[in-house]
Amino acid sequence: MPDQTIPAVPVPPPSEPLPSEPPPSDPLPGTAPAARTYKEGKPPRGVYVRVFLYVVATHVLLAFMSFLVIVAKSR
Q1: Whether 33 contacts 26, CB under 8 Å
Q2: How far lies 7's CA from each of 4, 10, 68, 73, in Å?
Q3: Which of 69, 65, 47 minimizes the C-alpha distance to 57?
Q4: CA distance 48 to 54
Q5: Interior/surface letters 35-62, b for 16+ CB within 10 angstroms, e for the rest
Q6: What is the pTM of this model?
Q7: In angstroms, rounded to a whole number, what is the distance separating the alpha carbons of residues 18 and 20?
Q8: What is the pLDDT of residue 14?
Q9: CA-CA distance, 50 to 40, in Å (whole number)?
Q10: Is residue 34 within 8 Å of residue 27, measured between CB atoms?
């Protein structure tokens, strides 16, 4: 018995036409402009900003904790 089974995909009979995608519609006036085009190898710029903020926040937290340890040891 195989580990994974693949369900059978129903195929329409040849007499029925295959479904096609609807034609692209023009954007309505007054709507927001279309999103930027997706590029496979390039992550969005927001990822870099978030990573930068996480790194800075982590360093600030570690520095604050080190400061608390130094203050606690001096007492």
Answers
A1: no
A2: 10, 9, 60, 66
A3: 65
A4: 10
A5: eeeeeeeeeeeeeeeeeeeeeeeeeeee
A6: 0.43
A7: 6
A8: 64
A9: 20
A10: yes
Q: How many angstroms separate the CA atoms of 58 and 69, rounded?
A: 17
Phi and psi at 7, nearest 5°, equal -70, 150
**45's tokens:** 């710029």
Question: Rounded to an integer, what distance in angstroms lies between the CA atom of residue 44 and that of residue 39?
Answer: 9
- Identify residue 44 by its one-letter amino acid code: P
pLDDT in tens, 21-48: 665 666 666 666 666 676 777 777 888 9
Candidates 62, 56, 59, 58; CA nearest to 70 is 62
Mean pLDDT of 1-30: 63
